[in-house]
Structure formats: C-alpha cells, structure tokens
Amino acid sequence: MKRSLVLYLVTLVGLDVLFLGLVAKDFFAAEAGDMIGDIRPVPAVLFYLSYIVGVLIFVSGPRSTLLHGALFGLFC
C-alpha cells in the first residue's frame, strides 16, 4: 500500500507539476493556449485520479492481457 501511494504521488508530481508546469509550460501554452478554457475542478480531479491509476497499472501492475485490454479501453 505504501509503495502504491508513493508511486502515485511521484507520478502526479512528475506528470503535472514538473512536466506541464516547468518543462513544457511554454510549448503547452503556445500549442494549446486557444483551447484552454476555465478549469473545472471536479472533472480535473476525476481525470487525474483515474489517469495516474491507469499509468501505474500499465507500468508496474500485474501482467494480464485481458485486464490490460479492458483497462486500456476504460482509461481511453
């Protein structure tokens, strides 16, 4: 459980804060600037909760083709 929580937090910080906030900030603003509207917190939180779980399952989860196929469809 502790390992999963650490992986989740590191992935969250790595994906959002470091990459979108620092590394690709200018590129993201230039390429998607016109599409960015008002931030709606509930959909954003739901997206990040499910997206990071999906990333962690595909990267460090159990190896089951049927499970991965079903989860890939769900997360897409």
How large is the count of helical segments?
4
- Point out poorly predicted stretches: none
Largest sheet: none
Radius of gyration: 15 Å
Helix content: over 70%
Beta-strand portion reads: under 5%
What is the succession of H and E elements?
HHHH
For the secondary structure, the number of strands is: 0
On the 0 to 100 scale, the average pLDDT is 80
**Terminus-to-terminus distance:** 26 Å
Structural class: mainly alpha
Shape: globular
* Count of the domains: 1
Structure description:
The structure is a single chain. The protein is globular, with a radius of gyration of 15 Å. It contains four helices and no strands. The protein is mostly helical. 80% of the residues lie in helices and 0% in strands. The protein has helices at 2-23, 25-32, 41-60, 65-75. It has one domain (2-75).
Structure described in brief:
The protein is an all-alpha fold and 76 residues long. It is built from 4 helices and no strands.
Which helices and strands occur, and which strands form pairs?
Elements: H1 2-23, H2 25-32, H3 41-60, H4 65-75
List keywords for this structure.
mainly alpha; single chain; 76 residues; globular; 80% helix
